[in-house]
Amino acid sequence: MPVNQGERARRRLSTGERREQLLSVGAKLFSESPYDDVRIERVAEIAGVSRGLLYHYFPTKRDFFAAVVERESERMLRMTAAVPGVPVREQLGAGLDTYLGYVQAHAHGFRAFHRADAAGDQAVRRVYQRALAAQERQILAALAADPELGPVLEGAPQVRLAVRGWLAFTTAVCLEWLREGELTREQVRDLCARALLGVIV
Predict the structure, then answer these.
(1) How many other CB atoms are there within 10 angstroms of residue 16's CB atom?
(2) Which H or E run contains 200?
(3) Domain named HTH tetR-type: which ranges (predicted)?
(4) Nearest 5°: CA angle at 190, between 185 and 196?
(5) DSSP 3-state helix, strand, coil percentages of the chain (rounded to 5)?
(6) What is the spatial distance between Cα 174 and Cα 154, in angstroms, rounded to a whole number?
(7) Which residues of 142-167 are buried (b: 16+ CB within 10 A; e: fewer)?
(8) Distance between CA 138 and CA 161 in Å, rounded?
(9) Cα–Cα separations (whole angstroms), residue 60 to 108, 110, 165, 176
């Protein structure tokens, strides 16, 4: 019996490649529509796989969305990791530029990540909140290790709250930037850099 091209294409993808493909499709759909409006059948259709195969990778829609959120969180954490021993002031601009480049290149995934907080499912919201907490810890660790800022900020109770507020500010700025596009990447970078230094120094 002849094998059609779709079947051959499915076999060419490894398990990891197929999972990545499904997550990419999910990131696009979840970025465009609320959680409740995304149909798992549509994900399978776009990916060219059966619904059963998608459920083999992700047992429930909640598991699928949670995996999309975790994927985007891990990607952002890797790209924004601080360089040990380099003052925050010196690497802040370059780090934000890299981050904003990611936001532009993966706009669907970025939107999908931040849609998670509005999802009605509490388990999905917990995944999102853990991801934000990881970003917060990463920034606080970089500040604590900074040779200039670390001693000044050590033990200051307002630092954690300031970083949390800055993350919310940066998210809002990036989402608006993607929507309107009035500012250049450099303008957004400088705005966010000044905001962080302004709230912690």
Answers:
(1) 8
(2) helix 185-200
(3) 16-76
(4) 125
(5) 80, 0, 20
(6) 29
(7) bbeebeebeeebeeeeebeebbbebe
(8) 14
(9) 21, 22, 33, 31
Structure-block tokens of residue 135: 């970003």
pLDDT digits (tens, 9 = 90+) for 41-58: 999 999 999 999 999 999
Q: What is the DSSP string of 105-138?
A: HTHHHHHHHHHGGG-S-HHHHHHHHHHHHHHHHH
148 contact partners, CB below 8 Å, separation of at least 6: 87, 88, 89
In total, the chain counts a number of residues equal to 201
Which are the contacts of 171, defined by CB distance < 8 A and separation ≥ 6?
A: 114
Closest to 170 measured CA to CA, from 156, 190, 149, 150: 190
Q: How confident is the model at residue 111 (pLDDT cuts 50, 70, 90)?
A: confident
Scanning the structure block, which residue is given the tokens 């091209």?
5
**pTM summary value:** 0.78
